[in-house]
Each structure stands twice: as C-alpha cells, then as structure tokens.
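G., the chain you wanted modeled:
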Amino acid sequence: MGVAVQAVARRGATVRGVSEWPELRVSDDDRDATVARLRVAGGEGRLTLEELADRVERADAARTRGELEALTADLPHAVAAEPRSRGWIVAVMGGAARKGRWRPPQRTYVLTVMGGAELDLREAELAAEVTIIAVAIMGGIGITVAEGVSVELGGFALMGANGAPDDRPLPLPHAPTLRVRAFSVMGGVGIERKPR
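Predicted structure as tokens:
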C-alpha cells in the first residue's frame, strides 16, 4: 500500500518534473529503450562496435536516469519511424537488389523464379528481430550481414543448397537477430558475413 504525498510549490520555488530528477531510479523498460536507441546509433555508424558493447553493458547496469542519459547525451534525438510489418522482393527471370541504407520490414518475403536477388543488410536499420522468408526456384538469393548480427537459418533445399555463417565470434548482447527461412528448389540461399 502506498502513501500519496501532495507537492506544494512555495512562492519562487519550482516543482521539477519526473524527467528532471537525474537520481530517479530506472526500470527495465527504461534500460531496454536506451539499449534500443544505442543499437540504432550503432547501426547508423555513430558508434563503433566496441563503443556500442561498452554502452550497452553500462545501460544494463544503470540504476538512475542520469546514468542512462549520459550514455546517449552525444547522440541525436531522432524519432525512428515504425518499420512496416511486411514487404516483398520479387525477381522472375531477372534480378533484384537492396543495399545501402534502408529499413527492411520485420517480415520480408523474397521470391526468385529463374532469377536472383541480393540483399545487403550491412547498412540497413534492423529492428531487434527481422525475419526473411526466402524462396528460390531455379534461382539464387544472397544475403549479406554485418559482423555482430546473429543469424538463424532454417528451411529446406531440394536439388539445391542453403548456407549461413556460424555465430563465431558470438554476437554482441542486444544485437539484432536475423531469422532466415530458406526454401530452395533447384536453387539456393546463401548468407555471408562481411565487415561494413
């Protein structure tokens, strides 16, 4: 049971809002929001992998709002647009490519029929989890990810092959996870890890 205390401002005094108390204790949600903001900054190239790992570790250990604010004080206050929930990339007897800075939907369907598709996610703004459903029929799909991104591959190949790099070294804590469900018939899906 809590006790409510009414704050009364005296003449000449000011009442501070909750966000103005740097010594205020933070919640797990506050820590998670700071980690998400740091991850976006790392994806934009504003932080090196070492800086990102250090700041994420300090965010997880933070106890006060002031400690969290110090970790993002040198980062711009950008409002991230909500990623689309679904998207399609299709190549029929031709090719398709996505590279550079882009924001893949949380679930992306890639279909190639006697063609090919290349997805370069090294500069992409990835959500915490991105799923790619890759279907290659007599064609190929190549996916490139940056170091530090966790990759999970599932699916099947009939008269073809699917392949992904192993997670060595281990991905950074709170790094994005790419889940690829690859289905190949006389074709293949290949995932490779390259530095930016």
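The chain has a mean pLDDT of 83.

Shout if anything looks off.
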